[in-house]
Each structure stands twice: as structure tokens, then as C-alpha cells.
């Protein structure tokens, strides 16, 4: 049966969404096309009608994962109009909302839905320019969020601080995931949270 253009596009988006989660959980090379397409409810033969290669899918899935992560950062920093009337800023702790969810034990355990920079950063470094371009765009978007949060209080220094804080947060989450000791893992998160706040207010 021939698939309509609308259905074909829906199938393509499903594959990208599924891949964005499975790649974060298993790595780009940790899951084959057959298993990936089965998870999307499609046959392996349908893959090459939708994507030029696995590298093409990796780039598109990376973009989707990074967009999802950016949306979480944005949601965390957007005042809830229903509970904050009027919405209030927190100049004494401008990064509080992002730090609260990013450097948390819950986020550490979110392998399939967590930060793609942590989950796939080292894999992306070994891939071609298209995958790296997806990550670069996503990283710049994350920096933009941090810059916006600090811009009212940091003046010209906020760009450099945003880069340092993102590096600190990504590194801490990575380290917390690769150790067995839960106390050490939490220590990385707590220490990074304190240092990130100090970099803004200090």
C-alpha cells in the first residue's frame, strides 16, 4: 500500500522523535537501524525513503533533542502566570530555576529524556560536520538562555560567565552519571550548583 505524503511525513517525525530518545539512551552507535525503526513502529526498509543515511538521522535527532532541552530550560525560567501575580524576578539567584532541574538527581537519571550534550557530546565529537552543527546550534541556544538570565546584573561579563557556567553544569552532570557512589554523584551536582551561583553573584 502506498503511503500518502502526509503519513510519510508523520512517520518521519516519529522516527526522529524516537531516535532522539534512543540515541540519548544508547549512543549513536549503540542501537541499530532495525531496532530503531521497530521502536518507531516501522520497517527498516522505510528508513531509506525518509533519510539519506544514519548520519542524516543522527543530525536531525540531535537537533530535536537539543530543541527539547532548550524548551525545558525556557520553561524553567518562564514565570507561571497562574501562580505568580505579578510574575517576580529573582535577581539574587537568576539561575535558580535552571540549576534546580538541571543539577538534580532526577535529571541525572533521565537517560532518554535528559541533556543531549551530556548523553551524546563525546559521540558527536566523533561525527561529521552535520551532527556537530546540530550540537553547536543547540549549545549556542543554551548559552543564550544563561546570558539572558544574567544580562540584567552582569554587564559585559555575562557572555564569558555563561560559557563557564554551561561547562561547569555539563561536566558535573556527566561526572555524576559515571560514578557508582550516590553520595559522590550528588556531591558533584551540589558543588556545581553552588559554584554556578557564586559565579553569578560573586
TrEMBL record:
InterPro entries: Homeodomain-like_sf, HTH_TetR, Tet_transcr_reg_TetR-rel_C_sf. Keywords: DNA-binding, Transcription, Transcription regulation. Residues 32-51 bind DNA. The keyword S-adenosyl-L-methionine does not apply. Residues 9-69 form the HTH tetR-type domain. SUPFAM superfamilies: Homeodomain-like (SSF46689), Tetracyclin repressor-like, C-terminal domain (SSF48498). It holds the Pfam family TetR_N. This is TetR family transcriptional regulator.
Amino acid at each position: 500500500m502506498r503511503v500518502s505524503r502526509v503519513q510519510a511525513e508523520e512517520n518521519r517525525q516519529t522516527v526522529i522523535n524516537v531516535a532522539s530518545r534512543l540515541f540519548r539512551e544508547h549512543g549513536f552507535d549503540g542501537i541499530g537501524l532495525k531496532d530503531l525503526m521497530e521502536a518507531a513502529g516501522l520497517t527498516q526498509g522505510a528508513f531509506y525513503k525518509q533519510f539519506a543515511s544514519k548520519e542524516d538521522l543522527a543530525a536531525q535527532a540531535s537537533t530535536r533533542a537539543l530543541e527539547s532541552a532548550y524548551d525545558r530550560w525556557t520553561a524553567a525560567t518562564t514565570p507561571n502566570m497562574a501562580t505568580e501575580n505579578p510574575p517576580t524576578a529573582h535577581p539574587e539567584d537568576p539561575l535558580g530555576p535552571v540549576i534546580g532541574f538541571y543539577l538534580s538527581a532526577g535529571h541525572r537519571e533521565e537517560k532518554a529524556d535528559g541533556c543531549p550534550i551530556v548523553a551524546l557530546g563525546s559521540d558527536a565529537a566523533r561525527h561529521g560536520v552535520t551532527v556537530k552543527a546540530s550540537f553547536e546550534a543547540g549549545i549556542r541556544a543554551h548559552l543564550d538562555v544563561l546570558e539572558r538570565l544574567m544580562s540584567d546584573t552582569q554587564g559585559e561579563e555575562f557572555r564569558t560567565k555563561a560559557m563557564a557556567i554551561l561547562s561547569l553544569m555539563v561536566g558535573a552532570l556527566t561526572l555524576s552519571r559515571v560514578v557508582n557512589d550516590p553520595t559522590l554523584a550528588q556531591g558533584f551536582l551540589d558543588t556545581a550548583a553552588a559554584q554556578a551561583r557564586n559565579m553569578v553573584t560573586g
